[in-house]
Design brief:
heterotrimer; A mainly alpha (about 425); B alpha/beta (about 325); C mainly alpha (about 325); A: about 425 residues; two-stranded antiparallel sheet; 19 helices; C: mainly alpha; 2 strands; about 75% helix
Chain lengths: ~425, ~325, ~325
């Protein structure tokens, strides 16, 4: 009996000493934890879903983040693409980054969905800001922020600040300062935008994600188009101030000083650069067959040109590593009218020339756009004539009867309109078949 | 040396405050049950000691206290003159609980080997001892490699006995060792117990099968309702004088039969035979006289002494005066 | 000590016969295999996904084994009354408790090892069957930019996958015994820390089962795990209380009681977050930059804490078990 009491006492003493040691260690540890403030107040259970989930996920927050992440990219591929309601998407990415604070791709991808796709640049930047101060060694997030500020929001000062942060990050590649320097260049936003979309497209290739490639490719086309238009509009202004008249043909602008020896990205060069590298890396494609429609054909000459000696395009390489060389190779110094990234050519829509309030963005059009415009115009006028015919019981005598004013809208191609009062037919002389 | 010695050993069970009984919640407000009430026992070296009593008398409680499974509420107990729980003493004890159940996933041999390790026996010794024991307790040849799941109740009882004898103990404590065994098995257990006594070991066992106990016990203690009713050598407890006579005869006349029937405690007639139980010597003499006189045949005449069973029933009935449940 | 080992091994033998164990193991392996598949869905960081899921599955299923297998171990001995013959043997009751504890721990650790091997194999296989690596293996560069297949590409494709599968399993086994590649760098340390955290949960499962039924023990163990996981959040809660009142000295009434209760609680509940190194495994520690290779330094404070805590809980369990009557 005495023995068992003795044993209990020994056990008790051991228990107390072990437990006291544990408590002391825990106390020291808690002191340390106290110094690191939590990312958010996790105990505000009434707060946003991210904070609640952080507590509910116990210590499996990384897994919870992964599942939400998979869910998020799935919804982006499906519903999220058509439904541009940014709020639920924003909450989702906010939650993901709350659960997994160092998940870099979640920040950049989230910004792309909310800012680029959803048109909510401020909220996208908010997400990037959150990530920027957590991932303090990585350049990618502030670099992304620079793009948003400059290209989408046109805020040069903000872009400069993000650019400087990105440059100072430990893992920033040597080309980052060069891209950041474009902020100071006139039309530098185009470089930054183009570079960003090239990177997105290459990420899409690496991830084998077709929707992402499609979106990025569209953005690249849009960026080059805006870039080209910028030059053409400047050339247009130069032409009008120099000659005092309006250009009738796009070729009229060719000799303008602004279109001499200027640098711009060329879509066909970009396509060629991709295809060449796809071959060198033993990939099936640089641009997926489904996405080739509406792209300018790369010239045989570009395709033949060998890859530079320092190219990283080797079998097994990652597309994203080629970001810089593809970017460089897509730029071209040229004179004259730039190439249309949508595979047609730039033209002048004469309808808007005649308009007193015609915007320059509308005057400088693409062939496909001009054709579409003519079709719409014809359809609209024909509908009006038809309505009038029904009212009168016979085709109107002249177009004045339809519009109650002189019909003096110029045909987009510069041709004349033809109206036959007997049959009520309305045509364009340049495209009588339409 | 006194092998087992208990002084005023008592055990009071306190029920759980809330208990689930037959699927219904039951509240026990301070209800307690006295299982053992001041038991004094002494068991000497080399004895076969039987602890007898009806179900719920406190036999198992006593054994559990001695084996350190439960702790007494009051009183003390010593084994081999050392307090309970002494590991050196435990190493010299073998114990077989009532209706034992063992790890049914282990094979017979693995099981004994495991318990051998708990006794701290070295490997070679374990192997040798296990082989002996399978023989000793009379398990079939395939038993060592058969998982305990496949053992019959009798085989479990036997391997339970084997594990109790693993360490070649000085004291063997058996709780109802013969329950669940067929007559042959009970005889074998009896033989083993007697053999242990021959080896100079002390056997302490509880039983409610009195005839078996009567055959082998040196001393018995009878407990009822947690109290000691009687303790001592069998010859002292049971009165030595003849209690009655059983007489079987054949061919007695009708007249004699009628005369004897009036005095007999029990009288059974079948054809020409008759069985009668007579309590007085004079009546026996009378019957014998008539048998001789009528030239009838005496088949048997047996004097009957008091059995342990009869003594037991008498004593238990005497102490079964209604006893109040203790409440506080 | 040998007696403790004997009890531990017997406990292990008993535990591996529990069917629940196999359900849990199979489920865990399924999740890890599944992680290899869904990692393809993620447009970024497929390894992160496998690592997150795999490490969490090893930890969580280890915990489930501790609960569902652990709470029955002591109870079965009492219920089948095998404890009667055990305590009559020349062993102390604390030795029995230690034996049960180590037996359960062996069971959990063996399972964790199996899960780890599988997890590493999935990681290696996923890494080796990356599209580029497959292409590189079945095409040969004859001239710059020109490739031709080696043999029949289709057969080579399957052959390569088969070879990589065997290799991945082999490397998985090797990783458990110390081999490592950049993708599995220091992952064994993370799993080891998980294992130490589970030792605390196991000791609690044993503690609870010394005095209550399996169901209650499971509930208690589960609650302990939850509160242990939230240990550092209790600190935030207490700080918030103090902050709201504008300093500890301004706290009054129920808030003061809550504050001190939280203070006490966060010191005595097991801090399981200390053994959770999964964030480091995926991103590396906060302080140093090591692209691709994520170092996980050994947290000796956590190791000491875990060992001392387990010892404390086992002492408590032994004390309770020492005074226990077996009916």
């Amino acid at each position: 009996m005495r023995r068992s009491i003795l044993q209990t006492i020994v056990l008790f003493v051991l228990f107390v000493s072990f437990f006291a040691t544990a408590v002391v260690i825990q106390h020291k540890n808690l002191e340390k934890v106290k110094l690191n403030p939590p990312f958010v107040e996790t105990w505000m259970l009434s707060g946003r879903s991210g904070e609640l989930l952080k507590v509910l996920a116990l210590r499996y927050d990384l897994v919870a983040a992964d599942f939400l992440w998979l869910r998020a990219i799935q919804s982006f591929g499906g519903r999220g693409m058509t439904n541009r309601d940014w709020k639920p998407v924003y909450n989702m990415f906010d939650t993901i980054t709350e659960l997994d604070p160092y998940f870099e791709t979640a920040y950049t991808f989230g910004n792309m969905v909310i800012g680029d796709e959803g048109g909510r640049q401020r909220e996208g930047l908010g997400l990037l800001n959150k990530g920027m101060f957590r991932l303090v060694r990585q350049y990618r997030i502030p670099f992304e922020g620079m793009y948003v500020a400059h290209w989408q929001m046109g805020d040069t000062n903000l872009a400069r600040w993000y650019g400087r942060v990105a440059m100072k990050r430990q893992d920033a590649p040597n080309w980052v300062p060069r891209v950041v320097a474009y902020i100071e260049v006139k039309s530098g936003a185009y470089y930054i935008g183009f570079d960003r979309f090239v990177a997105n497209y290459l990420q899409g290739l690496d991830a084998n994600d077709l929707p992402m490639q499609q979106i990025a490719l569209g953005k690249i086309q849009e960026a080059i188009d805006r870039w080209n238009e910028d030059y053409l509009i400047r050339a247009f202004d130069e032409y009008t101030s120099k000659t005092g008249s309006l250009p009738r043909q796009i070729e009229d602008l060719t000799s303008m000083p602004v279109l001499q020896e200027y640098e711009v990205a060329r879509m066909s060069k970009f396509v060629a650069a991709l295809e060449k590298r796809a071959r060198a890396m033993n990939r099936e494609y640089g641009i997926h067959p489904d996405l080739r429609k509406g792209l300018p054909e790369p010239s045989a000459e570009d395709l033949k040109m060998p890859l530079p000696a320092d190219s990283l395009a080797k079998p097994g390489a990652k597309w994203e590593d080629l970001r810089n060389e593809i970017f460089r190779e897509s730029l071209v110094k040229q004179s004259g009218i730039p190439e249309d990234p949508y595979g047609t050519r730039y033209v002048i829509n004469q309808t808007f020339l005649g308009y007193p309030f015609g915007k320059k963005e509308d005057i400088i059009a693409r062939e496909s756009e001009r054709n579409e415009f003519l079709k719409n115009l014809l359809a609209g006028i024909r509908t009006s004539i038809q309505e009038r015919t029904q009212m009168l019981g016979k085709p109107p005598e002249s177009l004045r009867e339809v519009f109650y004013t002189d019909f003096n809208t110029t045909e987009p191609y510069g041709g004349a309109w033809q109206y036959d009062p007997r049959s009520g037919n309305f045509r364009s002389t340049s495209h009588p078949d339409l | 040396m006194k092998i087992i010695e208990t002084r005023k050993l008592s055990k009071v069970y306190t029920h759980d405050f809330i208990d689930v009984e037959h699927g219904r919640l039951k509240f026990n407000f301070f209800r307690r049950t006295v299982a053992l009430d001041g038991l004094d026992l002494e068991v000497g070296e080399g004895e076969i000691f039987g602890l007898l009593g009806p179900n719920g008398a406190g036999k198992s409680t006593t054994i559990k206290i001695l084996m350190g499974i439960i702790f007494p509420t009051s009183g003390t107990a010593r084994i081999m003159e050392r307090p309970l729980g002494d590991k050196e003493v435990k190493a010299k004890i073998g114990f077989l609980p009532e209706n034992p159940a063992f790890y049914d996933y282990l094979k017979g041999e693995e099981f004994l080997d495991y318990y051998g390790q708990l006794y701290g026996m070295p490997k070679a010794q374990r192997r040798k001892r296990i082989e002996e024991l399978f023989d000793l307790v009379g398990l079939p040849d395939h038993a060592p490699n058969l998982p305990l799941k496949g053992y019959s109740k009798g085989m479990i009882q036997r391997i339970g006995l084997a594990q109790a004898l693993l360490n070649d103990p000085q004291l063997v404590v058996l709780d109802e060792p013969q329950s669940g065994l067929d007559p042959l098995g009970r005889k074998e257990i009896r033989d083993i117990i007697l053999r242990l006594k021959d080896q100079g070991k002390t056997v302490f066992f509880s039983s409610h099968i009195l005839s078996d106990a009567e055959l082998i016990c040196d001393r018995v203690a009878i407990v009822n309702r947690g109290r000691l009713v009687a303790i001592g050598e069998l010859s002292q407890l049971l009165s030595p004088k003849v209690k009655e006579y059983e007489l079987v005869a054949s061919g007695l006349s009708r007249e004699s039969l009628d005369a004897l029937e009036k005095h007999a405690r029990k009288f059974i007639e079948r054809e020409r035979d008759v069985l009668m139980i007579l309590e007085k010597e004079e009546l026996v003499k009378e019957a014998l006289r008539r048998i001789v006189a009528e030239n009838a045949m005496l088949v048997s005449l047996t004097p009957r002494r008091e059995t342990l069973e009869e003594y037991f029933i008498r004593e238990v009935a005497r102490t079964n005066a209604p006893r109040e449940e203790v409440r506080s | 000590m040998l007696k403790v080992l004997a009890i531990a091994l017997n406990t292990f033998k008993e535990a591996v016969r529990n069917k629940v164990l196999y359900f849990l193991l199979i489920f865990a392996l399924l999740i890890m295999g599944f992680s290899g598949v869904i990692s393809d869905l993620s447009i970024a960081a497929p390894e992160k996904l496998i690592k997150d899921l795999g490490l969490a599955a090893i930890d969580f299923f280890g915990f489930l084994i501790a609960v569902f297998v652990g709470v029955y171990l002591v109870y079965t001995e009492l219920d089948k009354r095998t404890i009667y013959t055990i305590v009559s043997k020349p062993i102390d009751r604390y030795q029995f408790i230690l034996g049960k504890f180590f037996g359960l721990l062996i069971t959990i650790y063996v399972n964790m090892l199996i899960m780890s091997i599988f997890f590493f194999a999935v990681l290696y296989f996923r890494d080796a069957t990356d599209f580029d690596k497959v292409m590189k293996a079945i095409y040969r560069e004859v001239a710059p930019g020109q490739f031709e297949p080696i043999g029949n590409p289709q057969i080579q494709y399957y052959l390569y996958h088969f070879k990589q599968f065997i290799l991945a399993v082999g490397k998985g086994v090797a990783t458990v015994f110390g081999y490592s590649e950049p993708i599995t760098h220091h992952l064994m340390r993370v799993i080891g820390m998980s294992a130490l955290g589970l030792a605390i949960i196991t000791s609690f499962a044993i503690l609870y089962s010394t005095f209550s039924t399996p169901t209650l023990s499971a509930v208690f163990t589960f609650l302990t795990w939850i509160i242990g996981s939230l240990c550092e959040d209790i600190l935030r809660y207490a700080e918030r209380l103090a902050q709201k009142a504008g300093g500890v000295e301004n706290l009054v009434g129920p808030d003061l009681i809550k504050y001190w209760f939280a203070q006490v609680a966060m010191h005595i509940v097991p801090n399981l977050a200390l053994f959770d190194k999964r964030m480091e495994a995926v991103y590396g520690p906060w302080e140093v930059s090591t692209p691709n290779i994520h170092n996980v330094p050994i947290d000796w404070v956590a190791v000491a804490y875990g060992l001392v805590y387990v010892a404390g809980v086992l002492c408590l369990a032994s004390m309770i078990f020492n005074r226990r009557n077996f009916k």
